[in-house]
Amino acid sequence: GGAGAAFAPEQLHALVMLFLQAHATGYLISGVFFGLCCLVLGYLLFRGHVVPRWIAVGIVAAGFAYLLDCTANFLFPDLTTYTELLMLVNAVAGELSLCVYLLVKGVRA
Predict the structure, then answer these.
(1) 65-94 mean pLDDT
(2) Cβ–Cβ contacts within 10 Å for residue 57, how many?
(3) Using one digit for the tens of pLDDT, what is the confidence trace for 49-75?
């Protein structure tokens, strides 16, 4: 029963792979927008003096790392192992430091 009965098993497997690849591509595209968001957030934090500047710079670095990783996944798929590591290191350093700072110290008034 159901819509899956209209397809042969090979066709179902091909459709599943197509949708998985579409999801992966969509996820990478969303990473571009998240990287841009990190760049804007880092800039605003840097200009606003609400957190230490090194945290704002870390957020900007994370934004560039997200953009680099997403771009490399599309243009240079063989380098994704390195760009993912670079992205993870920058993202954890920048975003985690912002999170811990806000939890411990809060925003400067």
Answers:
(1) 94
(2) 14
(3) 999 999 999 999 999 999 999 999 999
CA dist 58 and 102 (Å) reads 14
pLDDT in tens, 13-29: 999 999 999 999 999 99
Q: Are 70 and 28 in contact (CB under 8 A)?
A: yes
Distance CA 104, CA 83 (A): 31
CB-CB neighbours of 45 under 10 Å: 21
d(CA 88, CA 31): 13
| Residue 27 amino acid letter | Y
The pTM of this model reads: 0.83
H-state helical runs in 1-109: 9-48, 53-75, 80-104
Alpha-carbon dihedral of residues 96, 97, 100, 103, nearest 10 degrees? -110
Which residues, in sequence order, are CB contacts of 92 under 8 Å at separation 6+?
Answer: none
Give the DSSP H/E element, type plus range, for residue 104.
helix 80-104
